[in-house]
UniProtKB/TrEMBL annotation:
PROSITE patterns: S4. GO terms for molecular function: RNA binding. This is S4 domain-containing protein YaaA. Residues 11-68 form the RNA-binding S4 domain. It comes from Clostridium paridis. The gene is yaaA. InterPro entries: RNA-bd_S4-rel_YaaA (IPR014330), S4_RNA-bd (IPR002942), S4_RNA-bd_sf (IPR036986).
Length: 68
């Protein structure tokens, strides 16, 4: 599992996907989220503006990321 440190209170899901390199464009992040390919804390998340906070676990394309 990859641990990703954030220096703010939260980061939005679409921005997170771009930040870790899963998506290169916002439109690509939006597509992945809308297609149900992203899980947050074990549940499919289709909200691209979902606020991710410390200890959230994001799963996409057989990769897991934990926010620290």
């Amino acid at each position: 599992m990859n641990e990703i440190e954030i220096s703010t209170e939260f980061i939005k899901l679409d921005s997170f996907l771009k930040w870790v390199g899963v998506a290169s464009l916002g439109s690509e992040a939006k597509f992945l989220i809308q297609e149900g390919e992203v899980k947050v804390n074990g549940e499919v998340c289709t909200q691209r503006g979902k606020k991710l906070r410390v200890n959230d676990v994001i799963e996409i394309q057989q990769e897991k990321f934990k926010i620290i």
